C-alpha cells in the first residue's frame, strides 16, 4: 500500500499517542556516538563519476530548488558509477553547499548496494529550512550542516521503510508487524523516535545498522539495549540481506527526466546546452515504482 500524502500528514497526531506512552532510553545516545564508530565499519564503494552537460538538471532537483526559492542553475548535476551497479546514481549539489561532491559520493557509497537501490536521487543543499534531511518520492536530501552518516542512515531508513518492505505495507512502520514488536519494548531510542511511527523507524535504523556492522554490537555504547531490542531486531530481521554488504543492484527506481536549468522566460541559445543526458535504466534492471510520500526530519530534534 502506498500512503498518500494526506494520510501521512495525520501520522504525527496518531503517533503522538505512541510517543507519550513510552519513555526515551537512558542514557540517550547522541548522533556522534553512532557515526564516529560506525564509519570504520561501513566500507566505501569504488566509483567514478562524470558531470552532466551544461544547462541540464533532473526534474526532481529543479523542483527541489524552486520550492526553496533557489535557482536550479546554481546546482551541479553528476552521475556516480559505483562498481556494484551497472547504472549510475544521479545526484545534485548546490554550488554553495559546504559538502563537496567527493564527500557525497563517499558517504552514499558506504550504504550497502541493496539499501542504495531504494534511493532514487541524492541531493545536498544548504539551509533547507528547519530540516536536517528530507525523504520524498524515493529521494533523499541532506542539509550541509547536518551532513553525517547518522542523518544519512536515518534518511535511508525512511527509504527502506517506504520501499523495501512493501510486501507487508508501506510504510512498514505503520503495520501491525512493527507496532506489535514495538509494544514489547519498554523504551524508544530517542525523543525524536516518539514523533510518529515513521520517525520511530527512522531513529531505530542507525542503531540497527550499528549493531549489525560494528563488532560487539550496540551493547558497546548502550548498556540498556534490551529495552529497545525488539525495535532494532525487527528492523534487522525484516530487512535481512538488504542491509548486508555485497551483491549488486537488481532493481532501481526510474530516474526523473532531464530538464533545462533555466527559467522558461530566459532566452538561452541551444549552444548553451551540452548533450542531453541519458537517464534510462538498462534492461537488466527491474524498475521499482516510486513512493508517494514525504518526510521532513527536524534539525532541532535530530541531535
Ligand atoms: Zn526522519
TrEMBL record:
The keyword Signal applies. Residues 1-19 form the signal peptide. Keywords: Signal. SUPFAM superfamilies: Metalloproteases ('zincins'), catalytic domain (SSF55486). This is Conidiation-specific protein. It comes from Microdochium bolleyi.
Amino acid at each position: 500500500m502506498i500512503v498518500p500524502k494526506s494520510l501521512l500528514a495525520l501520522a504525527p497526531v496518531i503517533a503522538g499517542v505512541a510517543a507519550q506512552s513510552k519513555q526515551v532510553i537512558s542514557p540517550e545516545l547522541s548522533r556522534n556516538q553512532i557515526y564516529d564508530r560506525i564509519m570504520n565499519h561501513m566500507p566505501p564503494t569504488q566509483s567514478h563519476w562524470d558531470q552532466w552537460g551544461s544547462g541540464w538538471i533532473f526534474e526532481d532537483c529543479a523542483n527541489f530548488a524552486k520550492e526553496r526559492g533557489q535557482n536550479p542553475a546554481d546546482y551541479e548535476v553528476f552521475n556516480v558509477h559505483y562498481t556494484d551497479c551497472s547504472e549510475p546514481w544521479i545526484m545534485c549539489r548546490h554550488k554553495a553547499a559546504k559538502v563537496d561532491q567527493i564527500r557525497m559520493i563517499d558517504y552514499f557509497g558506504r550504504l550497502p548496494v541493496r539499501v542504495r537501490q531504494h534511493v532514487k536521487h541524492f541531493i545536498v543543499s544548504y539551509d533547507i529550512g528547519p530540516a536536517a534531511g528530507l525523504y520524498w518520492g524515493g529521494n533523499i536530501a541532506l542539509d550541509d550542516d547536518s551532513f553525517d552518516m547518522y542523518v544519512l542512515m536515518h534518511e535511508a531508513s525512511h527509504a527502506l521503510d517506504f520501499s523495501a518492505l512493501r510486501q507487508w505495507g508501506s510504510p512498514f512502520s505503520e503495520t501491525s508487524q512493527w507496532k506489535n514488536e514495538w509494544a514489547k519494548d519498554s523504551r524508544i531510542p530517542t525523543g525524536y523516535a516518539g514523533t510518529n511511527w515513521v520517525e520511530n523507524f527512522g531513529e531505530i535504523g542507525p542503531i540497527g545498522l550499528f549493531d549489525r556492522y560494528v563488532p560487539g554490537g550496540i551493547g558497546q555504547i548502550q548498556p540498556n539495549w534490551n529495552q529497545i531490542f525488539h525495535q532494532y531486531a525487527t528492523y534487522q530481521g525484516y530487512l535481512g540481506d538488504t542491509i548486508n554488504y555485497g551483491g549488486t543492484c537488481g532493481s532501481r527506481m526510474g530516474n526523473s527526466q532531464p530538464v533545462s536549468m533555466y527559467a522558461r522566460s530566459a532566452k538561452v541559445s541551444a549552444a548553451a546546452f551540452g548533450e542531453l543526458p541519458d537517464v534510462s535504466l538498462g534492461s537488466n534492471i527491474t524498475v521499482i515504482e516510486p513512493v508517494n510520500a514525504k518526510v521532513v526530519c527536524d534539525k532541532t530534534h535530530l541531535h
